[in-house]
Amino acid sequence: MEHIWFYIKKLHTFAGMKLYINLLGMIAISFFEGFGIYLLVPMLSLIGVIDLAIDNIPFLSWLPKVLGGIPERFHLTLVLAAYIVLIIGQSLLARKQNIMNSEIQQSFIRYLRVSTYKSLLQADWLFYLQKRRSDISHIMTSELARVSQGSTLALRLATTFVFTMIQVAFALLVSVQLTVLVMASGLLLAVFSRKFLKNAKKIGDQTTELSQHYYAGITDHFNGIKDIKSNRMEQSHLDWFRSLCHKMERNIVNYTKLQTATQLIYSASSAVLIVLFIYLAFEVLQVRPEQLMLIVVIFARLWPKFVLLQNNMEQIISTVPGFKSLIELQQECDHASEMKIGGTHLQRPIPVEQGILCSHVHFRYDRSSEEYALQDINVFIPANRMTAIVGKSGAGKSTLIDVLIGLIKPEAGEILIDGSPLDSERLQRMRSSVSYVSQDPFLFHATIRDNLLMAEPDASEDELWEALKFSASDEFVRRLPEGIDTIVGDRGVRLSGGERQRIVLARAILRRPYVLVLDEATSALDNENEAKIRAALENLKGYMTIIVIAHRLSTIRFADQVIVLERGRIVQQGGFQQLSGESKGSFSQMLAYGAEPIA
Ligand SMILES: Nc1ncnc2c1ncn2[C@@H]1O[C@H](COP(=O)(O)OP(=O)(O)OP(=O)(O)O)[C@@H](O)[C@H]1O
């Protein structure tokens, strides 16, 4: 029952008044239905099928008096007309109520979708470093579909419950003894079926776990399909997939077994109960035939609803784990929230006029480990100059950039932009000041134009081409079959690695940021294109703060400042020429080992 409440409470918080109107509608429908059943007695009597006494039927004692004033040949027509009006009225109301149910449920799902998506966007980068992406996709697609089903069922359950209660009230008015007899049997069955509900919960938990594995597997495998194919790993992946599909199959079959077992028990027990009921009614309780007829009609319609209630309950319970994972995800996001989307004043970029100061910064990815990714970093990145960060793989270069642009918060120490701390309020503004090109450039499955406009929706045609020229991509874009309107494929798969990097660079520059961050952004370029970009960056000096990570040391030849990192610490710092001259320093060693000649 707590699970049903769980849904109803959430729906109530969300829909409020609409839920009560919906309930009132259901009460009206149930009254129409009950009254329609009562009308069967005068109808059958008037046709002459059986001689039934109307006087004993609640709400109908006035009928003989009214009919007494009307010629007898109109009686049947009148009762039939009243019956038709009732049923049509009931159907119209039922339709309206179904539409309202769907509106409540769909707007509830929309609210859940949007609020979860917003929470996800507001979560910080650390949250994404710790979370498996496929788990997020799984919750946002498959689990949300289950929640949607659960909320439909919870609403249906609530309305079925109201309907059942009112019908039971109608039955009680006809005969208390008979109604109590039927209800006692129903209760017995409900107690007996508690075991089924427990099993439904267990199966529901398994469904969540299995489909999470399924989503994660599919995402991982197809992200790594090149590695799978080139290393002949198809068979082992297929084996894993087969075994998972087998488990999923068993899970659903077990659920069907559970549901059909409930249905079987209800059907079998109904047969036994009906026989027992008729026997007791006639032989022991000696009820009147019209009472027996009405009770049979009411419960013949209600009994399937009992089964429905039970089945709905099992289904709702099996969807609750989906809802719980959705809520947990939202809570995790809210816990990791670094900003509130909206509030345009917050997005005004910070101009970065003096520079970025990193003061005594420490950072660990895992607080329980002794390994620091950054240790006591003190550095000043002057505005409108080029700063290069170099060091061996794993030295902490990308982590330092993430800290500088506020993607991750230092564990100790602080970041000051033009002398002011980068607190949560200024964080969002700082992001608007920065354009960042990562090691793994990402393009959306859209045209080159759309990919560029995502960064700057108002950019003119000239501005787009200017950005493409900056990144040395205008020529190859012109040569593409559909030029700037060519679709780049999933993650830009239809372009070469170097072409992708250049488009992402164009996108970054299009925003005209105050700070341009390039993390190995030209690693896939040939010497000729790399030289073009180096020259373009050289021209930006004086207008933009540029921070570059590059293994290819020729890229940073014009850097005003070079920071050398080793195991999370700054070991050297100074101008390119100055560091090249320090023969015992790490930088000159790197120059000596550098595979690329410095052009
Ligand atoms: N998400 C993460 N979780 C845990 N540890 C991480 C994570 N990302 C990086 N690290 C660790 O932090 C340290 C610094 O990593 P970082 O990516 O900053 O190095 P890098 O100098 O940029 O290396 P590369 O040149 O290979 O990109 C490394 O020891 C790395 O293993």
UniProtKB/TrEMBL annotation:
The record's annotation in SMART domains points to:
AAA (SM00382)
Query: Where on the tree of life does the source sit, at the highest rank?
Result: Bacteria
Output the Gene3D superfamilies linked to this UniProt entry: ABC transporter type 1, transmembrane domain, P-loop containing nucleotide triphosphate hydrolases
Q: Which UniProt keywords apply?
A: ATP-binding, Membrane, Nucleotide-binding, Transmembrane, Transmembrane helix
Q: Where in the cell is it found?
A: Cell membrane
Q: Where is the ABC transporter domain?
A: 356-592
- Specify the ABC transmembrane type-1 domain's residue ranges: 40-318
Q: Which InterPro entries match?
A: AAA+_ATPase, ABC1_TM_dom, ABC1_TM_sf, ABC_transporter-like_ATP-bd, ABC_transporter-like_CS, P-loop_NTPase, Type_1_exporter
Keyword hit for Transmembrane helix: yes
TM segments? 21-54, 74-94, 153-174, 180-197, 264-285
Identify its membrane topology class. Answer: Multi-pass membrane protein
Can you provide one Gene Ontology molecular function annotated for this UniProt record?
Answer: ATP binding
Looking at the keywords, is Chaperone present? no
Designated name of the protein: ABC transporter ATP-binding protein/permease
The upper taxonomy is: Bacteria, Bacillati, Bacillota, Bacilli, Bacillales
